[in-house]
């Protein structure tokens, strides 16, 4: 039971934000809906259940199947380290390429920033508090899978913003990353299940808190017309650092 306590304490922090979002914008499309908890709830509960009570019965046999039957001593295939970023890049960039989006660019940035911040805090806290050994024994930061929660966050943001047409592709990338975390022996099945649920849930936290955050910082509501004009101006400027040669970027909002 001691292993369960940090998980429940961290997840309980999400109850306050969703309640606040519901009070602030009762009629908004960003308002909390109980059905939004079904998919992430099932994944999170499955991850917790397997991690705490089914590790030897489920996690270990699944890991052995990946290592003995599929990988069979082969090398790591590390493309998951790169494609994990594809959904979040799609969330930001598809609208800039002309794909019809649910929100304007500034609102997408606010929603995405809140989601990413929430995910980062919860995922890091879980790793530090639970201290679960990875299957390869490298360290005790196995639970949850950071790759999985990040890529599923991006996939759910894409689905919410652009619909299932683009969302299906983003979710295909997310599932591939989760599978490869098991294949490469960096995570157990329960790590990836919990991470997937956490990513989906925190994507919705950003949606629930979009209007409260705009109210808090007095960000004007976007006026939708034929040209999709907005009172908020956004500038994204890539550049190269002259000293180190590293790629950098600046993002500015003018209200």
Any overview of this molecule?
The chain is mostly helical. Helices cover about 60% and strands about 5% of the residues. About 15% of the residues have low confidence. It is built from eleven helices and two strands. The protein has a two-stranded antiparallel ribbon with strand order 1-2. The chain has one domain. The protein is globular, with a radius of gyration of 20 Å.
Summary of the model, kept short:
By secondary structure, this protein is mainly alpha-helical. The protein has eleven helices and two strands, in the order αααααααααααββ. It is 62% helix and 6% strand.
Features of this protein?
11 helices; 255 residues; 2 strands; two-stranded antiparallel ribbon; mainly alpha; single chain
Q: What is the CA-atom radius of gyration, in angstroms?
A: 20 Å
The proportion of strand residues reads 5-15%
Can you list the strand order of the major beta sheet?
1-2
Uncertain runs are 4-27, 223-232
Order of helices and strands: HHHHHHHHHHHEE
Structural class: mainly alpha
User: Mean of the pLDDT scores?
Assistant: 84
Helix count, DSSP H or I runs of 4 or more residues:
11
Kindly state the number of beta strands: 2
Shape, per Cα inertia axes: globular
Q: What percent of residues adopt helix (DSSP H or I)?
A: 55-70%
Number of domains: 1
How far the N terminus sits from the C terminus, by CA atoms, comes to: 49 Å
Largest sheet: 2 strands, antiparallel
């Amino acid at each position: 039971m001691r292993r369960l306590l940090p998980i429940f304490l961290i997840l309980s922090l999400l109850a306050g934000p969703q309640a606040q979002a519901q009070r602030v914008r009762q009629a908004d499309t960003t308002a909390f809906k109980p059905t939004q908890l079904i998919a992430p709830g099932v994944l999170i509960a499955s991850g917790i259940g397997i991690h705490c009570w089914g590790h030897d019965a489920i996690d270990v046999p699944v890991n052995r199947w990946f290592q003995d039957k599929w990988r069979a001593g082969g090398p790591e295939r590390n493309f998951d380290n790169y494609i994990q970023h594809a959904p979040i890049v799609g969330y930001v960039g598809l609208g800039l390429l002309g794909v019809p989006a649910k929100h304007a660019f500034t609102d997408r940035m606010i929603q995405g920033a809140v989601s990413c911040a929430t995910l980062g805090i919860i995922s890091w806290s879980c790793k530090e508090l639970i201290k679960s050994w990875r299957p390869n024994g490298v360290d005790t930061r196995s639970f949850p899978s950071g790759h999985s929660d990040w890529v599923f966050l991006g996939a759910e943001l894409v689905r919410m913003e652009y619909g299932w047409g683009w969302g299906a592709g983003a979710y295909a990338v997310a599932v591939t990353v989760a599978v490869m975390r098991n294949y490469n022996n960096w995570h157990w099945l329960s790590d990836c299940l919990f991470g997937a649920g956490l990513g989906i849930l925190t994507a919705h936290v950003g949606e629930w808190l979009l209007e409260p955050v705009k109210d808090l910082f007095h960000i004007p509501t976007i006026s939708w017309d034929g040209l999709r004009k907005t009172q908020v101006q956004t500038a994204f400027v890539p550049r190269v650092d002259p000293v180190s040669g590293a790629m950098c970027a600046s993002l500015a909002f003018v209200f």
